[in-house]
Amino acid sequence: MSAAHPLAGPLAAGCDAMGVALDADQQARLLAYIDLLHKWNAAFNLTAVREPAAMLSRHILDALSVLPHLGPEAVLDVGTGAGIPGIPLAIARPGQPFVLLDSNGKKTRFVRQAVQALGLEHVEVVQSRVEQYRKPSPQVISRAFAPLPEMLRLLGHILAGGGRLLAMKAAAAEDEVAALAGHWQVSLQPLRVPGSDGARQLVIIEPSTESVQ
To answer: What are the chain's domains?
Structure first.
């Protein structure tokens, strides 16, 4: 019998603390993803987070903290990088379509390999700049790659038709929210991530009811 993964206990404890229910197969896939990321990171510098234990808290649990706010619609992860938050969320939501978008060829090659190795048949990986990706999406998520007004400028064509943006932020975003045009409806949700330092929050941005009438 193979030895238990050293992060199996911390992963299970973190999921319990957040109220995230994952079966044994889903937890095994998350641990396998950490192993892949750690292995590839040594050669390709995919993330500044080097240690597997830190990857668990700063990448895996951070991504899973969004689950209570994620709708059932198809998800576009913009600027996915090494597959975060898209891969952990796709493992947690096996019946939900995901598209993972990034312009960096080195990172999308890794993400394609990880998706194949993990058997995530409901995940598509696309290498493209966000400005050139033309397919509208009902639900866009991103670990915020720019200030919110700039994100909405870049994502406007993707959100056309009533899509919602879930922007993961590391710090207070009240000033950025105040700079948004009035035709957006915004809510801020605190995110609790076990083992993570500093405040995390999710900014949910949707067209206001007036703008879609």
So the answer is: 8-212 (3.40.50.150)
